[in-house]
Structure formats: C-alpha cells, structure tokens
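seq as requested:
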Amino acid sequence: MEVTEYLDVLRNSSAALLASARTDLGAPVPSCPGWSVELLVSHIGRVWSWAATIVGTGAGADFPAIPEGLVGAELIGWSEQQVRQLLDALAAADPGAGCWTFGPPPTALFWFRRQALETVVHAWDVQQAVGPPDPIDPDVASDGVDEFLTVMLPGRFQRQPDAWSGQSLHLHRTDGDGEWLVRLGPGTSVSVEHAHGRGDVALRGPASSLYLWCLSRVPSSDLEVSGDRAVADRWTSEIAF
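struct tokens:
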C-alpha cells in the first residue's frame, strides 16, 4: 500500500472507531477480554499520541498518560485531538527518513503502516462491541496479514523463545492474491514465504477473516480448514494481539 492509502485508512478507521464508541462507552469488548469500549478508546488515544511524538521527533518516547479526569465525551474529544496530531505528523514526515521503531523498516514508513492497521483492528473491536462489525477492506486486511506475520509475530517469538518447534501453517486468501507459508520455531525463528505450499494445517478464506483469525479475533470455523486442526487451535489459544 502507498503512504497516502495508509493515511486514508487511518483517517477513516479512526473516525469509525470513535463514532461507534459514542454509542456505548460502557460496553464490554469481546475481542479484548476485560476491556470496555471506554478503556479501548483511552488505549488507542495514548497510542496515537505516542506515535505522533515518535514520528515528529524520530526518537523513541515514553508511553503517555491520559490527562486526569477524562471520561465520556471528554475522553473521545481528547482522542480525536491525538489522531489529528498523528495524521499531521505523518503527513509532514518523509516515509524514508530514519526513525525509532520496534520492527522493520527502521524508518517513518513503519508508523504509517502500523498505525493504520492497529486503528483498523481496534475499530473492528469497537464495532463488534456495540453491534455487527463491518468486514475489513480486503486489500487492507491482506496487508495486515503480511505485517502481522513478518513484523509483529517475529517480535513476539523473540520474547517467547522455544514456544513452538517448527509447526507450519498455510494461509490462502480467496478474494484476491495472497498466500503465506509460515513455520513457527524452533527457538525464536519465524519463517514466512509468500508462496503456495503444504503446511501442517491450511486455512482458506477472505482476507478480512484471515487477518482477524491471525489476531485470534474470529474462530477457525470462519475459514476453510484442512490438515492438523490442533495447530490452528493452538494458534488461537496462544497468539493474540
């Protein structure tokens, strides 16, 4: 995806997230156990503020606190200010400029992609909390699958070595181009090939369902599954975002 597309995704998904949040801040968020919509809004507002500071300075930053006493409509208003600041910072940034990140690439481009995708997912979370959620745009979701497998998942394995011992999954998008052959472990290794191949388990479906499954937000029953279902079930129980 192009940087202008990431900006559009961030702008549109943040607006959808906050519009849905206004309907019931007290609703529990099934895909984020223990969280209410209000807690999720406070989290994403802090993320937007944090990312805006990093993009603006190019350096790492402490995760910010929320101003004391912000609840309800004031919390939503504060979060709106944070995403506007993030959009302004990204629009002014050179995507190729060096920047602190927690994954590749080590440039501002990382934050265009990461913030667009994180916001898309949390918009889906809030929509699910207050009513039927919309599917994620197929091409955005496909990019999300790729980012999760090649950027986010390897970081998780660095923190939890030896959790898996070489199990493999083949993910196949059915509403456009996209296949991933993933091998988990041994040790801290995560191997991802953008190719057709045989894994211990294969999962086929629309990009939105694949992405949400990767993040343990929908069950494997939302997809076509063949092979060792125990590997898919273990993923769902152990790998979440």
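The chain has a mean pLDDT of 95.
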